[in-house]
Design brief:
about 260 residues, mainly alpha, two-stranded antiparallel ribbon, 2 strands, about 70% helix, globular
Length: about 260
């Protein structure tokens, strides 16, 4: 029996209606806004210094990863208690390796923030994220160029590894969500302070790259800022969409914490 056009149309509408649609999750949006507010209120608190250093290490790790990707070698990575950092590496000749490596700090921080937002809010892989943090920091300790960097990497690796192992599910989720929100927030502030303050920009990665290319530091600042904001915006958009049949906000679910 051949279905009539009307019945076929009704079937298509029903099938379309049965397909789950993602939408903005208000619960996740409120959680993200609250975590960003906490980060802003306590921005100058010494309690957040380890988290800030963690993001700085992410920035320098971006330079290190890009160096290896470009075929260069990483000599050492250093952090300082004043939240400054450096990645010293040897690059192959050519403009593209130089552009890639110098761009990977700020843009890499934005990518890290976006990926953390998606993993924490969308896929709820909190324990896995903390375990990866611990492994990453332990690996970076092998490239550390001073005692402070070694102590920070190994100490934070131990803390985050212990949190992944022993914190209850809600505690793990809150910690990872805060790390994700704070990484994105710090990436934005880093762009503002380092690239849009003319005094600081003269000593930033943009100025260093401008010395190797005909492009002025200001234009590199524009390009990196637009890229970083677009990446963070994408991460926020994807992470704040609800998954079909998934609980909202911090509600427990059947999957891993």
């Amino acid at each position: 029996m051949t279905p009539s056009p009307q019945s076929a149309n009704l079937y298509a509408m029903a099938a379309s209606g049965d397909r789950p649609q993602s939408r903005l999750d208000v619960g996740k949006l409120l959680v993200l806004a609250a975590l960003v507010a906490v980060g802003l209120v306590f921005w100058d608190s010494p309690l957040l210094t380890p988290i800030k250093l963690l993001v700085v290490m992410g920035h320098e790790s971006g330079h290190a990863a890009a160096t290896l990707l470009a075929g260069g070698s990483v000599q050492r990575v250093v952090l300082a208690p004043n939240q400054s950092g450096a990645c010293l590496s040897a690059l192959p000749p050519g403009a593209w390796p130089t552009i890639l490596v110098y761009s990977a700090g700020y843009v890499g921080s934005a990518i890290a923030g976006a990926v953390l937002l998606v993993l924490a809010f969308r896929f709820r892989l909190a324990r896995g994220v903390l375990a990866l943090y611990a492994v990453w920091l332990a690996a970076m300790s092998l490239l550390a160029g001073n005692a402070f960097t070694v102590a920070f990497c190994l100490g934070m690796a131990a803390v985050l590894g212990a949190a992944a192992r022993w914190l209850p599910p809600l505690g793990v989720r809150l910690l990872v969500l805060f790390l994700a929100a704070f990484t994105g927030l710090y990436a934005v502030f880093d762009l503002r302070d380092d690239l849009w303050n003319s005094t600081v920009r003269a000593q930033s990665d943009a100025a260093l790259l401008a010395a190797h290319t005909p492009v002025p530091a200001f234009l590199w600042a524009v390009v990196w800022s637009l890229l970083s904001i677009a990446i963070l915006g994408w991460g926020a958009l994807v992470s704040l969409r609800s998954r079909p049949s998934a609980p909202s906000g911090l509600a427990p679910n059947a999957g891993p914490a």
